[in-house]
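User: C-alpha cells for this one?
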Amino acid sequence: MPPSTDRERLLKLARSQGGVATRQAIKAGIHTQVLTRLVERGELERVGRGQFRLPGFPVSEQHGLALAAVQVPHGVICLVSALSFHRIGTQLPFQVWIAVNGRARKPALEYPPLRVVRFTGEAFSQGIETHKIEGHTVRIYGVAKTLADCFKYRKKIGLDVALEALREAWRARRVKMDDIDRYARICRVERVMTPYLEAMVA
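Assistant:
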C-alpha cells in the first residue's frame, strides 16, 4: 500500500481536477510507484501514457482536448479540433490538432493521438483563448483566428472544410469581418481569402 500521506495527496489532486498526470505527481515530490499502486488497487485508472483519472469520473466530449492540454501545456488547440470545439462545421476529428511554436520539441503521446502543426511568430501567439474543460485550462484559438488558419493549412485539412467553416461562422454571426481581416493578414492568407469573403458578403 502506498504511504497514506502520498496516497491522500495524490487522490486529493486527482479529485480537484478529475485526474492527474505523472509529471504532476513528480512535481509534487510523489514517487511514480504510488500511481502504479493506486491503479492496482482500483483507486485510479490509466487513460493514456502518464495520464490517470478517478474511476467513474464523468468524461466530456472534449476529453481529448483536456488530456492534450495537460500533457502539452505549451501547445494550442487548432484547426479542425478548434472548429469542433467551437461547434463550427461537421468535422469530428479522431486526432487532437495542436499547434506548437516554431522549433519546440514535437510532443509524442500514446493517448490522445495528436496531429501536430508548427506555427511561428504572431501566427502562433495571437488569437488564443483559454477555456476550462474538465477542470483543466485549455488554450484554443478563437473562431476568427481558426478560420484564417484553416485557409493557411487548406492543403492539410481540405479547402472544402475551410469554406464550410467560413460560411457557417459568418451566417451564425460568430465572427466580424475586421477580425477575419486581421488574422488573414497575420497568417498571410489575405489574397487567398479575399475572393471567398467578397462572394460571401455580396
